[in-house]
Design goal:
The chain is an all-beta fold. Helix content is about 0%, strand content about 50%.
Length: about 120
């Protein structure tokens, strides 16, 4: 199993960029597909992006496609999310997650980080 810790959240202006990182503790990181989700208060957790165990396959939600990029460094036990052209609707708590496959549903992931807050100012 892996333990996940996100970092890199903060305040960014509309149109700006932010890079999130997720560090995984555990020797089985390379076995997992990784995903990014986000959640606003009172709302369901929303799929953002996912990447396969070897980085060969990625998939994005329509709302972030072309603006966000997910990547992973298996040697570093990390997954990243580059977020460009930020919009006010991107402001949420972002979570990284580990699962056996690159799914788009929260129940497909069984390990979660604690989340990192992204705030977008206009």
């Amino acid at each position: 199993q892996v333990e996940l810790v996100e970092s890199g959240g903060g305040l960014v202006q509309v149109g700006g960029s932010l890079r999130l990182s997720c560090a995984a503790a555990g020797r089985t990181f390379v076995s997992y597909a990784m995903g990014w989700f986000r959640q606003a208060p009172g709302k369901e957790r929303e799929f953002v992006a996912t990447i396969s165990w070897n980085g060969g396959r990625t998939y994005y939600s329509d709302s972030v496609k072309g603006r966000f990029t997910i990547a992973r460094g298996n040697a570093e036990n990390k997954v990243f999310q580059q977020m460009n052209s930020q919009k006010t609707e991107d402001a949420d708590v972002y979570y990284c997650a580990a699962g056996l496959d690159s799914g788009t549903k929260p129940y497909e992931y069984d390990r979660w980080g604690q989340g990192t807050q992204v705030t977008v100012s206009s």
